[in-house]
Specification:
By secondary structure, the chain is an all-alpha fold. Helix content is 78%, strand content 0%. The chain contains twelve helices and no strands. Helix 5 runs antiparallel to helix 6 and helix 7 packs across helix 8. The chain is globular, with a radius of gyration of 24 Å. The model has no long low-confidence stretch (mean pLDDT 80).
């Protein structure tokens, strides 16, 4: 396990390097630039040349990339062109909001999707199974931003409830924090629960057909013990794989949800950077999200051996 962990961590280096090259190339291909955004109609050739020299934008692309990635390796993501503030401290501050939103959404998704997926598998082809599959299909089909707008309209018109504005940290006021975060987290959680529900159902159905389940039942184990102690543990591998992949979906979906609910997270910071043509901010945010996503996949791989002792990394 130790050797496998070291090997997987070393594999992150070329992956993140390739991602950084792709991010940098995409930023350079986007129409428009920050200099035009800053100067506007006053963008004379002389002023453009001065700003380009100030921010190093007049150098060859390969030099700009090496300078940027060299700073990233030293823990320096550069400075915002708009505010001249260091980018990494802003990312770490904003990521606390996004991480809380992602964790709450994942917990809500698991508590909804896994029990319903198990119920659908155990009650196969029953009315409950059909209703759960319809709910899962809706969760997969409806985009997060559309669900956000629909829920806001429904809650405001039917119950007069409006999501609180602003943001308060969890350690400052836990109750107020949960009041602010529960609605956006529920929307993100519901948006990914459909696929988790379907995967849980199919995985549990596959395990239920195996011989060891009949043996467990023949030995007198109750249905609850057979399902939750034996079947579910064997069915968790594909579920954990899907959940690990969906962390990236949650981070990406947070961009729109944070904007709708005015949450000062990493998604809102990325979207603001795009609107302002502040490409160093966008590059730093996207690279940080990619790093978290790749790291979550490594942790997911390491969880396999803990869930199923039959898996060996030797």
């Amino acid at each position: 396990m130790k050797q496998y962990t070291i090997r997987r961590i070393l594999q992150l280096i070329p992956v993140l390097l390739g991602i950084s090259i792709l991010i940098f190339a995409v930023m350079k291909m986007i129409p428009g630039d920050v200099i035009s955004g800053i100067l506007g109609v006053e963008a004379t050739p002389e002023l453009r040349a001065q700003l380009a020299a100030k921010y190093g934008l007049d150098r060859p692309y390969i030099v700009q990339y090496l300078d940027w990635i060299g700073g990233v390796l030293r823990g320096d993501f550069g400075e915002s062109i708009r505010t001249a503030e260091p980018i990494l401290p802003q990312i770490l501050t904003r990521f606390q909001v996004t991480a809380e939103l992602t964790i709450l959404a994942a917990i809500i998704s698991w508590f909804v999707a896994i029990p319903l997926g198990i119920l659908a598998a155990v009650k196969r082809n029953s009315m409950a199974d059909r209703l759960i599959r319809v709910f899962a299909l809706l969760g997969v089909s409806v985009p997060g931003f559309a669900l956000s707008i629909l829920l806001i309209l429904f809650l405001s018109l039917a119950f007069g409830y409006f999501s609180p504005l602003g943001y308060v940290g969890f350690f400052e006021d836990p109750l107020r924090n949960l009041q602010i975060m529960i609605l956006p987290a529920s929307i993100l959680g519901i948006s990914i629960s459909g696929s988790v529900m379907r995967m849980t159902r199919s995985s549990v159905l596959e395990v239920l057909r195996q011989d060891f389940v009949r043996t467990v039942r023949a030995k007198g184990a109750s249905e609850r013990v057979a399902i939750f102690k034996h079947v579910l543990r064997s069915a968790l591998i594909p579920i954990v794989t899907l959940v690990g992949m969906q962390i990236g979906s949650l981070l990406g979906g947070a961009v729109i949800v944070e904007q709708i609910f005015s949450l000062p997270g990493l998604g809102q910071m990325t979207l603001t950077g795009i609107n302002q043509r502040d490409y160093p901010v966008v590059q730093g945010c996207v690279l940080f999200i990619a790093f978290v996503y790749v790291l979550v996949n490594v942790v997911t791989d390491l969880l396999y051996a803990y869930i199923d002792p039959r898996i060996s990394y030797d």
